[in-house]
Specification:
By secondary structure, the chain is mostly helical. 71% of the residues lie in helices and 0% in strands. The chain is built from 9 helices and no strands.
Length: 154
């Protein structure tokens, strides 16, 4: 299997074949495809293919995927489709991005639960400064929620 073939099927929109090749790459732990997978991870508009790529990068333990995954998670284009991207982060040390994960605690159910799981797993790797920042975010969010509840029910 070669990298050019993978690019051709992705560019042509043959999602079924692209998914098949990407899954094969993951099974074979073929790291020579990492750069292509990273290239398409952020540029891919199709959520299914983007998720397959994210999971395979996690399977390949490609640490280079952390920042692109974080960028995607922050992107409005992934709203409602972040759960798998967060799941892919479990394979990596994303503790330097804990603030981003805390921001997702009030996202969709899947994203919020996945964020909570990631944060729980990294709690021993987070600095005091990061913990303080996260507490501020949570406290601020709680104030907003409390205000909305008071306005709604009063």
């Amino acid at each position: 299997m070669n990298k050019i073939r993978l690019e051709e099927v992705i560019e042509s929109g043959d999602l079924k074949e692209a998914v098949r090749i990407i899954q094969d790459v993951g099974e074979k732990q073929d790291h020579k495809f990492t750069s292509i997978l990273l290239k398409y991870l952020e540029s891919m508009e199709n959520a299914l293919l983007r998720n397959v790529i994210a999971i395979k990068l996690a399977d390949l333990e490609s640490n280079e995927a952390v920042l692109p995954l974080i960028n995607l998670i922050r992107s409005p284009k992934t709203k409602g489709n972040r759960g798998t991207l967060l799941y892919a982060l479990e394979s990596f040390d994303a503790s330097s991005h804990v603030v981003t994960l805390v921001d997702l605690l009030d996202d969709t159910f899947e994203a919020s639960r996945q964020s909570f799981q990631l944060i729980s797993n990294m709690k021993d790797k987070i600095s005091k400064a990061q913990k303080d920042k996260c507490k501020q975010i949570i406290t601020g969010s709680w104030r907003i929620i409390k205000t909305k509840i008071n306005v709604t029910f009063c």
